[in-house]
Structure formats: C-alpha cells, structure tokens
Amino acid sequence: MALNRRNQNKRSNILVITEALLIAYMGYITHFILAQINISPSVPIEKLMVNVGMLTISILICSLSVGLYETKLRETFRGIIRRIFVSVGLSYFFVELISRTFFDALMMHPYFLPAAVCTIIITLVVFRYFTNRLGLLGLGKVRIVILGAGERASIIEKRMRRDVDRIGFELLGFIPIPGDNREDGIRKEKIIHVKVDENFQQFIADNDVEEIVIACDQRRGTLPIDVLFECRLRGVEVTDLLDFMERETGQIVVNLMYPSWVIYSNGFQSQNYLRDALDYFLNAFLATFVLIFAWPFMLITALIIWLDDGLRTRTSVFYRQERVGLNGKLFKIIKFRSMRPDAEKDGAKWASKNDDRVTRIGHFIRKYRVDELPQLINVFKGEMAFIGPRPERPEFVEKLVREVPYYNQRHNVKPGLAGWAQLNYPYGASVEDSMEKLKFDLYYVKHQSLLLDILILIRTVEVVLFGKGR
C-alpha cells in the first residue's frame, strides 16, 4: 500500500501547493486591478503580502477541514463547488475578524477582501473542474487489476459503478480464477484472460499495474501465493478485497467479512488513549458551546410544538425513549417530539423518510436536525458523544444482533448525535438498511480519530445548513 499511498500523497501535496499559489496570485491581481481602476489606493508590498498570506493560509486550512484535499473525496462536482464556497466564506469572516481585532493598521480597502474572495472562488472552481475532470497535474490514477471474477469480485461492479467511485484508480479488468462463481459474478466489466503463473510478472510490467486486489471466491488451492509473493517483492501492492473496499468507499463490507480478516485487521477498539481520557471533557465543552448558540432555537421549537398540538393533546414537547448505548447499556434518549402522541400505539416501528406519523413542525425539525438538540442533555450525562453510531432501540437491537453479523461491535463506542453512517446512508427502515448502515458504523469504530470526528462534524454542519437531513 506504500506505493499507492505515496502517489496519493504526491497528488495532495501538488494540489495544495498549486492552489496556494493560485490563491496568493489572485489576491495580488485583485489589488492590482482595484488600484488601476482607482477604486482603492495602492498599498506597500509588505502590507499586501501580509493580507494575501493570511487569506491564503486561512483558505488552505478551511479547505483541508472540509475535505477538499482528501485523496478519496467522494463528491460530485456540485458538492466540490459547495465545499469551496464554504471554505472561502469561512476564511473571509476569519480574516475580517482577525484584521479588525489585532491588525487594524494592516487593514486593506473595504472592497479588497470581497473582490479577492469572489475571484478566488471562480479561480478554484475552474481549476478543480480541469484537474478533476481532465486529469491535469500529470498525476495518473493507480492502475489496478482484480484477481477474481466471481461473486466476491462482483461487489466492485455493484458498489463502484460511477466514475466518482473510481476517481483514485484505473481498473484494467478482472482476471478469472479457478473456483470463481461465474454465474453470480462479473457481468459488464472487462474480463482479462491471462494465466497467473511465472509469466504473470510480464503482464504486470507491460501494463504498469501498481496494485492487485484479491477478490477470488475460493482461496485454498487456487490462489497463486508464489506469484503474488514475487509481485510484492517487486513493489506491486497486493490488497485484500475487504481492505480495498474499506479504503475506497469508507465502509466495511460486513457480509463478506471472515474471521481471519477480523483477527489480522487493526481491530475495533480505540487505541487513542489520550482521546479516550479526554472524551467526556471534549464532548461537554462542545455541548456547552452549541447550547450557548442553540438555546433560543430550542426555546422557539418547544413553543411551536406546544402550540401545534401539545396544547391540544396535553403531551410533552419532549420525547424520551430507551436506547442501547456503550457496551449495551440502556439509557433514555431525549428529543423534541416530531411525531404524533399515538405514533406507536401498535408497537415499535422503523422510522422512514416520508413517515406519515410525523407532525407538520416535525418534518422541518427532522430535516434540519433541530429535534436532536435536547440530546445535549445526554451528552452532559455522559451517555452520548457528539460523534458516534446513532443509538438504536433495544427492540430492534435484539432482532438485528440475530440477523446482522457483527452488529454488536457498533456498541464498542458511545452512541452519537451525528455519525458516519448518517452522512452516507438515509433513514433505515429495515434489516437490510441496518446492514448497510452497519458497514459505515464499523468503519467509524475501526478508524475513530479526532480528525475523522472533525470531518463528520463539519459535514454534519453542511447537512444542517443545506437541509440535507438523512
């Protein structure tokens, strides 16, 4: 994986450097044009360099925060444009605040910053279009072949059909292996008929293959270990299908997991002891910060719910429900009530996207996640964290543990207000949906880190701002 990682890092580094130069240059050009048309006076070069430098660094940091330099960013071009607007917009307010507070003497003309921000946004959008769509910068994709063309290999054909799913690699084709289930295997992808023997090295060299993904249905007695060993010695990456899917899609394919992969993987328990030790204090601090800004909206929401049907039905504006938390411990979750008081008169039911039990105000507060705000109380009580798998009801957990393999592993971490699965999959309304969401939940459990938490927080804010509630 080292060669692949080096290529990815090289692409990211060149992208960062190139965009830094573009941002700085557009800042300089903006001032030059404003001075030439007599809108703003010319300033000393030192003053201009400080302002342009501050703007450049701020935009790079914000772009990094919203994932614009992720090597495996799964986003449409429209999504990339939205992220550029968010990162540059945040930088605008940050630079304006810093300049007015600490560097009043270095303040530029009032028109400079808005004009610079506009030109930078246009430049970055055009630049990203050509780099992402036309493959500029001379950075080719990683060339891979799939060893196997049966049922396991077909997961790539089914889950990675779009070009955006393959943005980090170029798939040459699938190589059939004895024992593959071809009836349920590859249908539309390219099949490469080549023997995996001592001459396989020549095929790898002739096609500049950088990575081989092992996806055959039967390994015992069919996998050419000696050939793969030789490929590995020559610097070609050899990757298991589960690791490949985990890396490229941000999920763990639960239905393809096998015990030895779990044993030899990084595990599903956090090894970040400092993060674990500070877990409650970090979450309590974030909850306090959010509460300072959110309490007026919470008060208004409670009032509207009460006027909408609480006054008539004499039902609380809050909704308390038993959920399964860390290590299977039960607790009472607190939310703003978004459904009718008789929503579960016939027993527990899955929530769906267009649930007819949702009230008029409920549709709005669910879309913008306002109904989740009372869970700050659960955070203060230490029952929940800001980031983690969403807590499920014990009635459903009991069923899911029986039907979905490894489901209990999601309880290795505290449940959260926002999660990786919620960003990547819509409301779950069945066991099948729970299986799909578990793939993302286990990815989070396995890869939990402060940087991943920050990414989820930022993307959750994007969901709230643009009303993309899932």
Describe the overall structure:
It is a single chain. The protein is of the alpha/beta class and 470 residues long. The chain folds into three domains: 2-134, no CATH class; 142-249, Rossmann fold; 273-465, no CATH class. Helix content is 52%, strand content 9%. It contains 17 helices and eight strands. The chain has helices spanning 2-36, 45-65, 77-102, 112-134, 154-159, 200-206, 225-233, 241-249, 259-264, 273-277, 279-313, 360-367, 376-380, 394-403, 420-424, 431-447, 450-465, and strands at 142-147, 169-175, 211-214, 237-240, 318-324, 330-336, 385-387, 416-418. Strands 2-1-3-4 form a four-stranded parallel sheet, with helices on both faces. The chain has a two-stranded antiparallel sheet with strand order 5-6. α7 (225-233) links the parallel β3 and β4. α1 packs across α2 (45-65). The chain is flat, with a radius of gyration of 26 Å. The mean pLDDT is 82.
